[in-house]
Amino acid sequence: MMELRVVDLEKRIRDHLEKLGFEIHPLKVGWYNAVLSPAFHLPYLDDTLAFVVLSTPAMFDKAFKPFLRNGPLKKIRDPVDQCISHHLTLLRESLADQQVDIMYDYELLPNRKPKFLAQTAAHIAGAAYYYQRKDVQQDPWGEKKIYGVCIHPRYGGWFAIRALLLFPGVEVPSLLQKTPVDCVTTEEKRIELLEKFNFHWRDWSYRDITEVKEKYSEEQKTYFATPPAERLQLLTLQG
Ligand code: GSH
Asked: Is the ipTM of this complex over 0.90?
């Protein structure tokens, strides 16, 4: 019974979000909590079902531009964030029989910590490998603070982690954990990736560390490279 319900639930979420250019990956809260210090633990039972939600390059045309076309352009302060919360709210409404908690990547707790660690969640769910300093053996960075970065097997760095969906009423003790595809395998490439991400992130070259199947269009690149206040005037919203 339980398993069928979960398969059905996953299919409903997938059907709703994939056509909008999102990707979902299931995980158990216990897997996530197990790799983090207590300060970051999510207060759910270990077997609780969750999904990490990614936006793929297609989200821009399939969800974002239609969202802008249908809304009152001038009043929107955070169009990207609002587009995503709009669609996840609709999803939640379509799952009216389920309790769903949604945490967005842009949400902070009162102590300024993020509500959830998006890259850890993506790695643990098998969605995208989270490359960190500890994945490099001969570390050349001394005292410097080095941030890690997720790389997706299809989209390289051309995607974003947007949210975590949690189902407090649904426990999935037998969910199988997938390991993320390790697509940056050599020591040299991993060093190059972390160097690009930490010291040259503005040129976005880290996103092309692997061969990608699909990436942002020129229009989408220009959009995200432009300061938020000047973005909307860039877009051609017909069609
Ligand atoms: N808060 C603003 C909005 O909602 O429009 C800005 C949103 C924004 O630009 N977010 C970045 C993003 O989506 C940071 S996650 N970038 C896409 C990417 O880096 O791939």
From this structure: yes
